[in-house]
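Running this now, will post back.
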Amino acid sequence: MAALNLSVPASKTEAIANPINVKTSIVHSTKNLEAASSVFFQPIWITSLVTTMLLYFASRAFQPKHKKDVLAFKGTVVRIVALLSLIVGFVTTFYVSQFLGYHFPDSPLISLFLAIATFAFIMLFSGVIAWIGIPGVVIFALLMFFSLPLMVMAPQMLPQAYQDYFLPWLPMRFLYEGIREILYFKAGFLNQNTWSLIIVAGIGLLMFFLETFGKRHQKTFI
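Update: finished.
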C-alpha cells in the first residue's frame, strides 16, 4: 500500500489489523456441572450391588414348598426393590447436591432417572446372581473397576475395538449418557437411555423369575 501511495483511514486500521472477527457462542452450557455426569455412577452401582447381596442372602434362608411360593417371594422382592430404588434415587441426588456442591436445575427429574437406573442394575444383578451365586458379585465388582476409566474418557480416545464391541454392552453406559443428556442437552425423562435401562431391567427380571424353575429349587419342592 505504501508503494502505491495509498492512505488508510484511521477507521479501517482495526479491520486490517484483525481481519477475522471471532465470536464464541455457548450452545450447551455446563455451568458448574462439568463432571456431574460421572459422580452418580459409583454410588448407584455400589448401592445396587450391596442391596442385591443382602437380598440374595435373605432369599437363601427362604425354604419354599411349591413354585408358587418362590414366585410370590420373588414378586415381593421386586416390589421391595422398586421402593428401595426410589429412595436411593432421591437420596443420591440429595447427597451429591448437599455434600459435593452440585446444584441441578431439575432434581426430581434426575432422581427419577437414577431410580430407574438403580432398579435396572439391581434386577440385572439379581438375575445373574440367582443363577451363578457369589461369583456374580465378583464379576460386577470387577466390571465397575475396569469400566470406570472408560466411562470418563471421550469415546474417540478409545481403541476402535472398544468402541465397537465393548462399550455398547456396558449397562452403566446408559446411566452416564442419560444423565449427560438430561443435564447438558435438556432431554426429558423418557429419553433413549431411559428405554435402554428399562430393557436392562426387563432382562434382569426375566432371568430372576426363570431361576424359579432351576435345579436349586426343585430339590425343596414337595
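The chain has a mean pLDDT of 81. More later if anyone needs it.
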